[in-house]
Fold this protein.
Amino acid sequence: MEELKVFCPATIANVSCGFDVLGLALDSVGDEMIVRKTSKKGIRITKIIGQDLPLETKNNVAGVAGLALLEKSGYDGGFEIVIDKRIKPGSGIGSSAASSAGAVWAMNEFLGRPFSKLELVQFAMQGEKLASDVAHADNVAPAIFGGFTLVRSYEPLDIIPIPTPSELYATVIHPQIEIKTSDSRKILRTTISMQQGIQQWGNLGGLIAGLFQNDYELIGRSLHDHIVEPIRSILIPAFDNIKTNAVKAGALGSGISGSGPSIFALSKGEEIATRVADSMKETYKNIGVDFDIHISKVNSEGVKKID
Ligand code: HSE
């Protein structure tokens, strides 16, 4: 194996009621990465296509995540990485997570898979720490495991893969502004009221139950965030209109993707997801906001080898 080319999926973290603990991987949007094993020690990011990001290993999320794996592996050589960055940084769909997850997944393949997926998540979390000051796992876990994942606990790290109903589709619109995760975390309060807690864990439990039971109605009823969304949504153009119109167009529910500014909606079936996309597009076109939009199934594999 001379080199490995991988697809690194974009992810939706939080999924409304699961701040820092819930995420899902997307199928139709992600980065590509080429990883080569070398006899030269260390990690070198040799090229980044599409975005202006640091090449220095210690300043690059893929480099930092890769170094964490390399140190634990005992392998005496190194790796070279080329990143074709298709997910815009600061978009809210797990740009840094895709690079971190892709690097450690590919390196693990080269070394004969000495590490479990859980360990790969731990390495990739070092990239998240560099990107956002916090080693959150709700993007890297679905990027590595695929599907929906729940971070039941951070210490010790405990990741629970959650099944995905087969007709579930995500629509994601990205207004063309950049919001750094570190900035959008700074504006959050550090405490919540008992009332907010009760609403949030009721919904999170409902969403998980809905995913297990293929109960689309229950998934829709549970897609609410009473804690983070009211604060972060003020940074996102026409958030309330996009969300209201998405639900009117048939979405089960809608909310902020990760730390924003992307907005996601979940729908039953591709036809409704496409109608939801049309409503989102129209809302932004009417007020002159530029955007990217994606319609995607949930990716069940996570990072994968491509030709
Ligand atoms: N849970 C993280 C946050 C995800 O919302 O800050 C960032 O993509």
About this structure: The chain has two domains: 2-163+300-305, 168-297. The chain has a mean pLDDT of 97.
